[in-house]
Amino acid sequence: SQVYGGMDDETSRSRAAVQDTAGIVVVYGQPGQERIFKTYFSSCCGGVTQSAADAFGEAYMLPLSDQDVHGLCSRDDNPRYNWGPVEITKDELTSRLRAWGQKRNRPERNMAAVSKLDIQWVNRFDRPIRFVVTDTNGVRYSLGGEELRNAIDAGATKASPAHLPSSYCKVVNDPGSSVIRFVEGHGLGHGVGMCQWCAEIRAEAGMRHEDIVLCAF
Predict the structure, then answer these.
(1) Please, which of 38, 188, 196, 207 could form a disulfide with 44 given CB 3.0 to 4.6 Å?
(2) In Å, how far are 124, 167, 209, 213 from 149, measured between CA atoms?
(3) Could you write out the DSSP letters of every residue in the chain?
């Protein structure tokens, strides 16, 4: 639903793929108790995925847990495996977080000016999953990686277009600087479930689609 371009974008190959996989679903559970579950895909995981539990607060389940795919999607023609630096002024970051907090009735709506931003938690493969923002009053605000990314990206404008391709990055708070820098970034999107670049690379290596799905989830 996110990428379908309409009938004009269909090809004989895409229609054949739909026909050949009609009625095939992904299920998970104990033998005899398998159930269809909500799956996810991202544009590029950046080499490490995050779990749906960490990204979206959903119940933990093994098929949507975090994975280290060892840089499978690091192909030279992938423009988003590596990205950065991205620089956002503290004033702009404050404005975006306040607006995001206002829409969601969260404490960030009343935060003082941003003083610094740090990684609070990482998953077992060192991908950041939670950040903490400290304001000039010393108040700390904890945001999940997807919450921070969405807050920053929702506030992007033509006049201030800086955004985070993903939350898989490092943060630099230079003493006395009015800018926060996001460096050594990897991936595009939330990084949960199937990475489209990893799927394509596996297919080009001859892996069957059934096995690609089992790898991804």
Answers:
(1) 188
(2) 20, 6, 31, 27
(3) --S---GGG--HHHHHHHHHTTT---EESSTT--EE----EESB-TTB---HHHHH-PPP-GGGS--B-TTTT--TT-TTSSB--EEEEHHHHHHHHHHHHHHHT-GGGG---EEEEEEEEE-TTS-EEEEEEEETTS-EEEEEHHHHHHHHHHT--SSS----S-S-SEEEE-TT-SEEEEESB--BS---SEEHHHHHHHHHTT--HHHHHHHH-
Tokens 């309409």 sit on residue: 6
Residue 73: name the closest of 37, 56, 48, 91 by CA: 48
One-letter amino acid for residue 29 of the chain:
G
Q: What is the pLDDT of residues 147-160, one digit of tens each?
A: 999 999 999 999 99
- Judge if pTM exceeds 0.90: yes
Please count the residues of the chain.
217
